[in-house]
Structures are given as C-alpha cells and as structure tokens.
Design brief:
309 residues; 12 strands; single chain; alpha+beta; Endonuclease, Chain A
C-alpha cells in the first residue's frame, strides 16, 4: 500500500481536477501503476477512461467529463468550440452529450466515445487558459471556433454578444484574434469577421429576443439602435431595451416576465414617465414580433420619420 503521505499528495491533485487523476500523474508523484490498479480493485478508485481514474465518491458532472476528455487527449488538449462556449458560461450554449476537444495538428489521440477531436494547425493561437480548473481555448478563439461549426449566423452573434456581455474579451482582443487567425486560413474567419464588423463598438443586446429584434431592424435597413440605453427619468436611473437617443425613440421588448401584473404596472409607470420626458415609446411582445414582423418594422420606421420631420 502507498504511504498515507503519498496518497494525500495524489488526492490533493485529484481534488483540483474534478476528482480525476491520470496514470502518468500518479507515476510523476511516485505512485506506481500497480498501486493505482490495487486502489481500483479495492473500489477506492474507478476507471473513468484509458489511463484516467476517478476517486470514488467524486461527482460525475459535465465539467468532470470535460476534464476527463482533456486528460485523456494529452497534456496540450483544450476544451473548444461549443463545449468551450458552455464552459465560459455563454447563454444559449448548453451542455451536450459530446465534448469538443482541440489538439495540435498531427497529435491526434485515440478516439473516445462522446469526445469530438479537432486537430488545429493554429494551435499556438488558441490562447489556452483555465476555466473551473479545465484547460480551454481563450474567449476570442472560442468565438472563431464556434463560427467554424455554427449552422447559422444567429449562433455566431449569440456567442459574440455573450462574450462581450460577460466582459470576457474586449473589442480590440476580438479584432486582434481575428487578424492573426486570418493569416492561417482558419475555418470560421468569414463568419466571425462578419459579426465583429457589424457589432464592433456597439452595445450588447440583453437576451435572445433583443438579439433577434436587432437582426430584424438590420435586415429591414433601419439604423441600429442602442441596446440597454441608460436614462435618468423622474430621478431614477433606468435602461431602455433598445433606443434611438437622438430621436428620443424608446423600444421596450416584453418577454414572459412582463405578463406578471406587478411588472406590467411598473412598465406603465415607466412608459408614462418616458413620454412625459419627450420620448416616443414603442412596446412589442414576442407574439406580434414573430407573427407580424412587418408591422413592427413599419412602426419603428414611422416613429423615426416623425422625429426627423
């Protein structure tokens, strides 16, 4: 049996890796392969993957699966693509049954069920870091990777908006990442460049409804409003979902929470205060937005035209 001191060192390392430890790490600390196998035979450890053990009692979470994926794939492996977006906490990128992992070109490890391996010839640009103890691509690189596998433009916009909303990367960070990856012909560059150019320096919409609303106005050829525009009304600081400050046109988007009576009453008070302060207030719910988008566009255009007149 290994000494209690040695076993403590091994368990301390495992505690920083979601209760996981590799055979190589055990050997580096002085615990032999035979000793590790005996711990498995006793039920103190469980085999998580080839060469990776889980301390018995350690919770099996999505994060622990991600950690196991990078530990199995080798010392340079990084959680990437949609899995990295989830690990960074980007809204709209939930946990899935598969884990995306990026490794350097020509260093492809043995395939493992539930893990999608990506070989990268721009691995040195991945800006590796750690999130919750797991090796992951940096936020700016994550955006480019998401753009490479996204099925639609909205997914890329969602990733960009969330990275900015959470302040994971600055606009210059994102632009610099785009430039250095472009020289390598990285997949996803065209889609990432499109959304960065259109959004660069602009305020971030709050939530999916607001994001879709901006897309509707953009495709209708209307000017881009300011998202989450701050105003002081009746001595209180408030935020307007989307606003044209120069024209003093305020747009409020009503999600499900606005159906609650006390929320609706608060909305009425705020609308009245905005109108008394000289704003035109437009309020749209999801049903009308999704079923009659042409009416929505027409009303926004009419409000702007009235101000310009």
């Amino acid at each position: 049996m290994p000494s209690s001191r040695l076993l403590t060192r091994v368990l301390e390392l495992a505690s920083t890796q979601h209760s996981l430890i590799t055979l190589g790490q055990c050997r580096d600390l002085g615990l032999s392969g035979d000793a590790a196998r005996r711990l498995v035979a006793r039920g103190a450890w469980l085999r998580e993957a080839e060469g990776v053990f889980r301390v018995a009692g350690g919770p099996r979470t999505w994060q622990s699966r991600a950690m196991a994926a990078v530990l199995t794939a080798g010392p340079d492996a990084l959680v990437s693509h949609r899995s990295a977006a989830h690990l960074w906490g980007l809204e709209g990128f939930g946990a899935t049954g598969r884990i995306d992992v990026t490794v350097p070109r020509h260093r492809r490890p043995r395939p493992r069920r539930g893990v999608v391996l990506h070989e990268s010839n721009a691995f040195d640009l991945a800006a590796p870091t750690r999130r919750r103890g797991i090796a992951v691509t940096g936020p700016a690189r994550t955006l480019i990777d998401v753009a490479a596998v996204a099925d639609d433009e909205l997914t890329v916009l969602r990733a960009l908006d969330e990275i900015r909303r959470l302040r994971l990367a600055t606009w210059p960070d994102l632009w610099q990442s785009l430039l250095v990856h472009a020289t390598h012909g990285r997949p996803g560059i065209v889609a990432a460049r499109s959304v960065i150019v259109r959004r660069y320096g602009r305020s971030v919409p709050h939530g999916e409804f607001a994001r879709l609303f901006l897309l509707l106005l953009e495709r209708a050829g209307l000017p881009d409003p300011v998202s989450e525009h701050p105003v002081v009304i009746a001595g209180r600081r408030r935020r307007i979902d989307a606003a044209y400050p120069r024209e003093r046109v305020a747009i409020e988007l009503d999600g499900r929470v606005h159906r609650l009576e006390h929320v609706a009453e608060r909305d009425h008070v705020r609308d009245n205060q905005l109108e008394l302060a000289g704003w035109i207030v437009l309020r749209f719910g999801w049903a009308r937005f999704s079923e009659r988008p042409g009416e929505v566009v027409a009303e926004v255009r009419a409000a702007l035209a009235r101000r310009h007149a």
